[in-house]
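Hi X.,

You mentioned you wanted examples for the new student's onboarding notes, showing what a folding record looks like when two proteins sit in one file. Here is a clean example. The first protein comes first, with its sequence line followed by its structure tokens.
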Amino acid sequence: MATQAFSAMRRSLTWCFLVSAGIASLEALGYCLTQGAENALPLAEFAQRFSNTCLILLVATTATWIVIWFFVVWLGGVRPGLALFFMLSFFALLGFLVSLLDVGLALTAKLAPYQSLLMMDSFFFSLIAAVLASLIVGKVSRRARPMGLTPRAFTMLAVLLAATAFAIWRRGGRFSQAPVIIFWGVFAVAAVAVMVVLWWLGRKPIRLGVTLAAFSAAVFAPLFVPLFVPLALGPAPVPQPPAKTASALSHPIKHVILITVDTLRRDALGCYNPNTTGSPRIDEFAGDCALFMNAFSSAPWTYPSIASILTGLAPRVHQLIDGRLKLPENVPTMAEYMEGAGYRTAGLGYNSILLPRSRLDRGFEQYDWFPSYALTVKNFDVGLTHELLNLTFVRRPSTAQLTDQAIQWSKDNAQQDYFFWIHYFDPHTPYAPPAEFLPTDPKGYARCTTGKFVMWTPRSAGCSIHSRPSASMTTPSSC
């Protein structure tokens, strides 16, 4: 009895591992497609992210299988193989669709307003498709001879997907100048040879088990490298603070604060629109400052326009015009200049595209950006693993919490000269303002719901996302 239970557990873990490795390979492919060749990771980091991703997916699939086994197999009496087929089909299809969706979101901004809706559609489509496929397999296997699937072909598929992911990564690095036909021709020949060897090894269960053990060891080996590298190389050197060229006592202006608000229309502020009374603090502040009436954003979306604010360069100069790109190392930032002048620098804000991977954090001694993970695990930031971490370990502070943190930082550093950048995200989609800011005139506005998006729009505009009046590119500026 114990032997049978152990054998069943080993088979289940084997299938969960193969599906996890396949989904991790899809996410690695998605990363390569969205980041571009110029942002290719070093081999060690790429391998570590692949291992982390595979481990997270293995834990998720295994935990899900334990729940399904208890409620569906043990209590419900469903055949274990059929229940396992359902779960693996669901995860495989969902992993593929989420990776495809994330690639689409990175390549075009047109899908962004529908992200939550498309994510839900992907989940329910995968669930329904897995249920239908399981019913069909269950019906066929009852009438005909029971179907017995071995990991042989799926091992070959998982290895091929992983090899393809590493080949595309390598193509973006060392072999970026190699002719496309030669590179992929060599890869195709090598892949066929490996598949033939794997097919031969899989003919006997013992050899297949050894192959799976070797494959799993290769996948998870990078997880243990950080444990041994410090022992071999000794302690890492202590980083030194950057040299400052000016004394903090020589600054005529002690505190420089930059506040930016994502997608805030100028006609939503009373200082620009007399018919609006929803921004009394900003209006009061603008009344005591220099108010620019003819200032224009450098671009109609966040990434290039914020980069222009922080660098003083036009988008075609700093080249941050694509969500896959990072700020080039030769482009200096405002924070770097302020740091070099002797100011302490800090950034605090909320927007996933402005996370440190954008390299807009250069020059900031402290960069607290959200959404952030309570549990930091390096992954490809694409696909099912990324979404699972977002659902379980992500931190999303409210506007009040962000403001309280900014006020506390200012108090803690009041005796120092500093440059402090604060970025708010609230006016961005999905349009779901707090209850106290909802429209008070039910006759003039309509509450429109699209997926998770809640929008209050004039009744004359209708409930289409694209029917809202287009936002003016004019950006308010004050002292």
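Then the second protein repeats the pattern, sequence line and then tokens:
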Amino acid sequence: MERATRLATEAQQPALALRTARRWISLDPASLDAQTAAGMAALELHKITDSAGYFKTALPLIRGGEEAAFGEFEAMFAQSDNVYGARQVADRLSAPYPASAGALRFLGLAQASADDAQAAADTLRKALDLKPSQELAWIRARALAFADREPEALALANRQVAAQDDASSRLQHASLLILLHREAAAQAELESLTEDAEARPRAMRLMGQLQLQLGNLDAADICFKQLLKSEQFVEDAFYYLARIDERRHQDEDALRSYAKVTAGDNVLSAMLRAAALLRRSGATTESDELLDGLTADAPARAPQIIAARAQQIADAHEESRALKILDAAIAEYPDNVDLRYKRAELLERTQRLDAAVAELTTLERRRPNDPAAMNALGYTLADHSLRLGRARSLIERAYAQAPQNAAIRDSLGWVLFRQGLGAQALPHLSAAFRADRGAETGAHLGEVLWSLNRREEARGIWRQARVADPEDRVLRATLARLDGAP
């Protein structure tokens, strides 16, 4: 049963993994591996009560006591894509241990990952009171920033730098300043760090990311080319240089740079973007071969790669073929929610709204109290001005659980706007755009400003949104409809 469970997990089949893990437990109820395997499979299926039950059984089986157990749970949960379910399980597991630094850390990190920065900041303060930690203090500072508690975030950061005034702390400080949209202060900090030979590569990488985020392509290009000369973070440098070339429509240069990203956190993104560039240039065979090779090399990411392939094919106006690919993938990976979200998205795009809503309704019922599922259904209804009361209820429930999620705040603002409540919508859309600078969010915020007769402000937001993604379909359609832009 152990081997069957492992194989099912590796094959992205959590329902099968849960069945075999249950059988394994029936044969060996004291097996820690069996209990945690069942807990992780149940978590991926959003079976919150079941998952919490298995982990509660596993906790006393871990050597070292509760502190060690919560440390192991933290590492396991970091591997789960179901961040909202992980937070709900963490709530249940940590509740009996209010005086445990490990339990509070575990819960605070889960809350932060699940976009509840307010709760995370408060929980992590309790953990830090019990067990001080530089690393955790910086995580709490970021949570405070996300929770719009800027003075507290800056005060904590300043204390951290005063306690440990080294390059690592100053880089953390600069990163926090970027998060708080204090770009000039962040740039000054990073420029001073470039004088430190050891810190210079990390500072140049963060400076380049900041300049790219601001749309300063020439400045970003200089930073990443200097990073290449340092011979550190080379894969990151090639990845971001390729992103710059894409923005400049220099596709051949971008492809050459993406091909040099062979390790690190950006490999999958680089290969998916390269495949999209190849397809847009007409090299569909080469694009498919690249994606086939990527799937073979990273089978654990197969559903994500298939979803990206379907999106690329749909963008080439072959929506029917894209849907067939998704249908086949769902048959192979029936428990994967990302494939179903993508299928609903393409059904909506092909004017099959009833089928899209049915798909999302099924997901929302299968995953009760999942903010992602509630938001997806609520937004789709709101975007088409359907059952706006139901849409708002779903989105408000999602927002209550994940108040710092930019997509959910965008949805809440959008449904309020659809209900004719533009003034109430504005704070939510403004907060969402401030958090993610996304093109679609910017399109929504600009439209609400336009409706309130604040048209120059709307145009300013749209200009910022075009920096993020000038080709975004929603943004382009909004500009064409309201401002006559192509």
